Amino acid sequence: MILPNLSIKKLLTENYTNNLTQVLPIDSVKNYLTYLLTGLLLSILASGCSKKVAGVDRSGVKATELNIANVDFEYLTASSKIRFQGEGQNVSATANIRIKKDSVIWISVTPGFGIEAARAIINRDSLSLVNRLEKEYRSYNFQELSKKYNFTISYDLLQAMLLGDMPRSIVNDDQVKQETNYFMVRQMEGPVVIDNFIDRQLLKVERVTMVEREENGAGRSRKNTLNLKYSDFKQLDEEILPFSNLVSLDYRQRGQKRRTQIDIKHKKVSIVNEALRFPFSVPDKYARR
């Protein structure tokens, strides 16, 4: 991974730290950005719309015949408001996001006062977080991150959560069920069952439920569940994008049930033609956690 060159000598001043603690309790300030960014990379996009419809099974529908309207672009930027709840934290911040589709996601977090407090970069095989408040950084490959949260996590899943796309491409073996107002596409990926609920008019994903089952030592099945919900769809050039998203992850860690929720509201999104920069570096004096 290429790590960027950042000057941070004057980034964290005494006044800035004092001001932040006035906005947040001291317990929230400590590890605030680590929780926020890690949760963002795992979570579920919120949808305010739910439809109560009577469903009818119909035969002869193939998943590959559904022309799902995934967002088509090479480079994208977004300015977003993010609220994180989980692991004893309830915090919010502004995030600037840059994406090169299917390649890299870059996130800069500003909790207030116009000063960057954290930065994250996500590649196909790993992610890294720099927390400027705590002067530390964290790096994970997706195998480590999946083990930490007891749920299969990948680059494609994180990108889909930000864009409102299906986390997994459609294949011939996928099952399709037609409902009154939506299609439901069921996919299997190892122990994970993925249900995608697709609006019939927009052909956009409104909700995704991913359930991962595993057997514990007693032979009993337990479930980890990730729910993605997308709403407030807006036209962006020729694309349609959800601007209000909620992510929910229910999982077990050290035998305890846990929940992480991230509410993402995009304020501005742009598809750009010119190549974007993704600067990221770790200062030498920062400790790895």
Descriptive overview:
It is a single chain. With 289 residues, this protein is mainly beta. It has one domain: outer membrane lipoprotein receptor (LolB), chain A, CATH 2.50.20. It is built from five helices and 14 strands. It has helices spanning 14-23, 26-29, 32-42, 142-149, 155-163, and strands at 75-86, 89-100, 104-110, 118-122, 126-131, 136-141, 175-178, 182-189, 192-199, 205-215, 221-236, 239-253, 256-272, 287-288. It has a 14-stranded mixed beta sheet with strand order 7-8-9-10-11-12-13-1-2-3-4-5-6-14. The longest helix is centred in the first third of the chain and has 11 residues, at 32-42. The two termini are 18 Å apart. The model is unreliable at 1-36 and 41-59 (pLDDT under 50).
